[in-house]
Amino acid sequence: MNLTGHCLCRSLAFEVTGDILRTGHCHCESCRRATSSPVTTFFCVATADVAFRGDTLRHYASSPGVRRGFCNGCGSPVSFETEGRPGEIDLYVAALEDATGVEITQHWYWNERVSWLRCEDDLPKRED
């Protein structure tokens, strides 16, 4: 699969050349606060399959063993990495130029979801 994406100001771009390992809508409080949105949608790939171009990807250690990547220019969130899954990186589906073909397969941290958003789909809803 070949996927491309970029931040809001377009100074940071990425290209993915490998397979998607997993996808999901994350409802955890940490992701909600990092994006100021009620839910965040990720696709996960091998770190070695991602090439970043342009501006330098900056990182913020949002919790122990977790770092979130963002654009140095506009601050757009771009990535999520955890020591719990070495060699993998989560990228935001919404940052893709074309997400056609990226099928979302599950909800994560369903127990942390906001009460005012209705998600009425048949996807598995995991607590973690």
Question: Any key phrases for this structure?
Answer:
globular, 10 strands, three-stranded antiparallel β-sheet, mainly beta, 5% helix
Task: Describe this entry's structure for a reader.
This is GFA family protein. The chain has one helix at 29-35, and strands spanning 3-6, 12-16, 22-26, 40-46, 50-54, 57-63, 66-71, 77-82, 88-92, 107-108. By secondary structure, the protein is mainly beta. The strands form 2 sheets. It has a 7-stranded mixed beta sheet with strand order 6-7-8-9-4-3-10, with helices on one face. The two termini are 27 Å apart. The chain is globular. It has 1 helix and 10 strands; from the N terminus they run E-E-E-H-E-E-E-E-E-E-E.
Short description:
One of its GO terms (molecular function) is metal ion binding. This protein has one helix spanning 29-35; strands spanning 3-6, 12-16, 22-26, 40-46, 50-54, 57-63, 66-71, 77-82, 88-92, 107-108. The protein is mostly beta strands and 128 residues long.
The total of helices stands at: 1
**Sheet with the most strands: spatial strand order:** 6-7-8-9-4-3-10
CATH architecture, by name, is Beta Complex
Low-confidence stretches: none
Distance between the termini: 27 Å
The gyration radius over C-alpha positions equals: 14 Å
Please summarize the sheet with the most strands: 7 strands, mixed
Structural class: mainly beta
